[in-house]
Amino acid sequence: MKKKRSESSAQGKRAGGNVKHMPDSQIDFSDIPEATDAQMKRMRRVGRPASGMAKQLIAIRLSPRLLSQLRKMAAKQGKPYQSLIHELLEKAASKAA
Questions:
Q1: pTM of the predicted model as reported, rounded to 2 decimal places
Q2: CA angle in degrees (0–180, nearest 5) for 46-51-60
Q3: CA nearest to 88, candidates 50, 62, 64
Q4: Is the separation of the CB atoms in 5 and 12 below 8 Å?
Q5: Which of 50, 55, 97 is nearest to 80 (CA)?
Q6: Residue 32 per-residue DSSP state
Q7: pLDDT tens-digit readout, 21-63
Q8: 84 in Cβ contact with 70 (< 8 Å)
Q9: SS3 16
Q10: N- to C-terminal Cα separation, the chain
């Protein structure tokens, strides 16, 4: 059986390694029209707002059974499962302190 290759893997990144980087100064932007005032007014910031309380991204390994249970619990409460995990860890940490 042939192994599926992921574009996000190290091998996938190396496969695109023969593409040469082009600095912005060499890109021709002349065919892009200027934004109108109306377009500028409709623009909005994309992404998460900057705050002093940004959460830190970590990796954690959970058993598939536990993850499934947590996802079901979160679905019943109508919230993302990662938010539920955060709440449960916060409660457990405050009890232990």
A1: 0.50
A2: 90
A3: 62
A4: yes
A5: 55
A6: S
A7: 889 889 898 899 999 999 999 998 888 777 777 888 899 999 9
A8: yes
A9: helix
A10: 51
